[in-house]
Amino acid sequence: MNYIDDINFNAAGLVAVICQDFKTDKVLMMAWMNKQALDLSIQKNKAVFYSRSRQKLWHKGEESGFFLNIKDIRLDCDGDVILLKVEQIGGISCHTGRLSCFYRRLKNNNQWESFLNVLKDPAIIYKKNKNAK
Amino acid sequence: MNYIDDINFNAAGLVAVICQDFKTDKVLMMAWMNKQALDLSIQKNKAVFYSRSRQKLWHKGEESGFFLNIKDIRLDCDGDVILLKVEQIGGISCHTGRLSCFYRRLKNNNQWESFLNVLKDPAIIYKKNKNAK
Predict the structure, then answer these.
(1) A102 in contact with B at a CB cutoff of 8 Å?
(2) Does the pLDDT of residue A128 top 90, yes or no?
(3) Is the CB of A77 less than 8 angstroms away from the CB of B20?
(4) Residue A132 pLDDT greater than 60, yes or no
(5) What confidence tier does B128 reach under pLDDT thresholds 50, 70, 90?
(6) Domain limits, chain A
(7) What is the C-alpha separation between A104 and B45, in angstroms, rounded?
(8) Continuous segment of H or E residues that includes residue B56
């Protein structure tokens, strides 16, 4: 029996993947993987996702240089969520140029407030393609 | 404009919700909310999810006593994942009786290894209904 048999991919063949910095424990982002992306991630020891919007593999860091090196792979009780402990390269995980994708916080007035600075202009990060993540 | 307008619920009307201990930063679980669950969570200051398997609201802790008190609500760049910073009551988040749902780790032999102990027998936690989470 292979490890893949314990993963419950959804109807679209995807599993949710939470990425957490292995040193700081900050939650950096959540994305999705299909079987191929998971296989490649394990082979390369770097996060490879499946982009639902672009409907293709998304080699995280390929354009930006902000790779996520895999330190540990964990699976939840239902087998439908993976938790990756990662080493974040370059200090930026979000395509907006921030440390983490979770940069908005709900305030008492029921509005979202940004609490993380943009560390680098996305236009500079993604020279080839501004829409790439 | 309300905070809810920035949330991109999926085709099933759900948004993914990662729960992270606000003190230890451990990732405890991931579940889903619909608008009603999110509204109730904010009102009660306790996590209320939508159970996809049971197709109804899931008042986390209602049976087990293991409530998740909300300390902070964060939203990702795409608006389709919420990160809850929570105070975990009772030291158990997983329906298997463990601290976290992410209790399996991929070993070099490509097998999952459990690395978190069962702290309490689920049969005792869920006296009324063994299948409840």
Answers:
(1) yes
(2) no
(3) no
(4) no
(5) low
(6) 3-95
(7) 18
(8) strand B56-59
* Beta strands, E only, chain B: 15-21, 27-33, 48-51, 56-59, 68-75, 81-88, 104-106, 112-114
Label residue B18 by pLDDT band (50, 70, 90): very high
- Mutate which: A78, A92, A109, A118, vs B, most B CBs within 10 A: A78
The CATH T-level fold of domain B3-93 is Ubiquitin-like (UB roll) (3.10.20)
Q: Which residue in B has a C-alpha nearest to residue A113's C-alpha?
A: B74
Superfamily of domain A3-95: Phosphoribosyl-AMP cyclohydrolase (3.10.20.810)
CA distance A118 to chain B (A): 12
| Maximal C-alpha separation, chain A | 52
Q: Reply yes or no on whether the pLDDT at A28 is more than 90.
A: yes
Q: Which two tokens stand for residue B30?
A: 């991931």
Whether B93 has a pLDDT exceeding 80, the answer reads yes
State whether residue A85 is helix, strand or coil.
strand
A75-121 confidence digits (pLDDT tens): 999 999 999 999 999 999 999 999 999 999 999 878 999 999 999 99
Residue range B103-129: mean pLDDT, rounded: 90
What ipTM goes with this model? 0.94
- State pTM to two decimals: 0.94
Q: Distance (Å) from the C-alpha of residue A12 to the closest C-alpha of chain B?
A: 13
Least CB-CB distance to A105: which of B6, B42, B74?
Answer: B74
* CA distance linking residue A28 with residue A91, whole number of Å: 10
B103 at A interface, C-beta within 8 A:
yes
